[in-house]
Amino acid sequence: xxxxxxxxxxxxxxxxMMQRGVLQPGQKMPSVRKACExxxxxxxxxxxxxxxxxxxxxxxxxxxxxxxxxxxxxxPLPHMRRQSGTVATGDEVLDNIELVLAAQQxxxxxxxxxxxxxxxxxxxxxxLKSILGKLTREQPELATDYSYPPGSLALREQVxxxxxxxxxxxxxxxxxxxxGCTEALQLALRTVCKHGDTIGLExxxxxxxxxxxxxxxxxVIEIPTHPTTGLSLDAxxxxxxEGRLNAIVAMPxxxxxxxxTMPLENKKRLAALVNEHQVPLIEDCPHADLFYGQLTPDxxxxxxRDGYVLLCGSFNKTLAPGFRTGWIAPGRYRRELTRLKxxxxxxxxxxxxxxxxxxLQDGAYDQHxxxxxxxxxxxxxxxxxxxxxxxxxxxxxxxxxxxxxxWVELPGEADSLALSxxxxxxxxxxxxxxxxxxxxxYRNCIRLSCCYPWSDAYERGLQRVAELxxxx
Length: 472
Hints:
By secondary structure, the protein is of the alpha/beta class. The chain is 42% helix and 15% strand. The longest helix has 27 residues.
């Protein structure tokens, strides 16, 4: 077995032992020599495992002594509201979203909330630049040719190959490439809905869905969503049985903003429900490849019997946000969606699609994803520690299964809108919880992000937000 597989197996085994209490905080880990004898592996393998555990905040190295299990400071899960109601998207929420997006463009602001990784720490920029240059030299026509729907065949073949890791069997013909996941969502909604229809939406949800739904004239029913198991299927089943929904939008794998991943049995039940009631599910998975485990969980689409699940993904969070390349597997709606894509934006940038396809073909993506998952998991652990140690008593937070965002619930009658304004006055960008609900719920919540290089300025900013929250 490869060294990487060996040390990852050890990391998984020791992490599980810590979670079960077999390894207690303060307990010394086996010495490198003893661990080598016990597991019959090399010192390099043991050291690699210990270093990864250290990056994740699970062990600490003590000079001249060895590695010790760290005490984990974790907060209880948030209290999630359980109301549902049918409303049009509120203008107040949309106004606040516009303010947040405008603030992100301001120079000199410290961004603590947006899930928009920046810098070469997170992307294989050099490799993509090399491929782009080579393709431009050898196939200059790629810079001038249109890539009409359904998009680059080479890229669609790679997407289909990678979908197998999500338990989904697709061919290139099942896929349409798009301008990011946002266009995939828009095309899906325009394909399966008409003006005045009602959408079932997780609550809280990705806040940029709200202006999109508003622009399409769609109404929303907020469905309770648990911070570990995701969308409430009992609530959804009741709504479906009453015929109140025309479509559903959900993030079952690495939810934004909760970080939850729906258990496999729940995904099977969700697929069965939408097929039974013939109500389309738009499965939004932009963060799925950032799941912290070694294997990405199966998508709901893997259990889709009759094609009612439209699966959306992109490479914006993992490879190249500037390329704005996404994709959708629309199931039974493929023909209508492909025509709509042609009428909406005509084509894709062929040179960029071929660059991504070439990168995916050479096998480097899996190695890059392993690095990215470890990096985010380590940074998430540090972020959780800062929140636990500095935020006011009574603060609660999620325990994400992947990705880079943490949902934080402040105690009492805290007002995250006021908190975000106070942070903005000190040149810090903070997204209030009210933006993640059409009705402006979750006013005592904020979303934090760890998708930036960890720095003293970033940590000081988090501590300052904690001070502001304490005085809010």
